[in-house]
């Protein structure tokens, strides 16, 4: 387990303030995921406004709960990548097509411009870009229900 010699708090404006073991404080710190899709809780860098790394966190679980919660809140406020848990229907099996899906952020509909907008990524995950540039993720195709997998198979 790594020992982290820093403190993290929010200032009156809600921005993260990093305080090093030396006592030096840096405002406006941002957490950045190294592997946002394949390992979202592993490899987090805390960087200053210029992108200079202040601390590396191997695993979020290593942090004390208050620090971990602050980092998770900051990440969730900046990241938007809904995770598809079910594909309800598609308007056609040729692109462009309108998709109706269930995500971890609620029901969504989007237009898929072409099959090239569905990309395979590490670990059997898929990244789907809609016509507005919003990225949806399917972390594990095998976890989808049979009907959703059948629809998806027609596009892969």
From TrEMBL:
<feature type="domain" description="DUF1854">
    <location>
        <begin position="27"/>
        <end position="155"/>
    </location>
</feature>
<dbReference type="Pfam" id="PF08909">
    <property type="entry name" value="DUF1854"/>
</dbReference>
<protein>
    <submittedName>
        <fullName>DUF1854 domain-containing protein</fullName>
    </submittedName>
</protein>
<dbReference type="InterPro" id="IPR015005">
    <property type="entry name" value="DUF1854"/>
</dbReference>
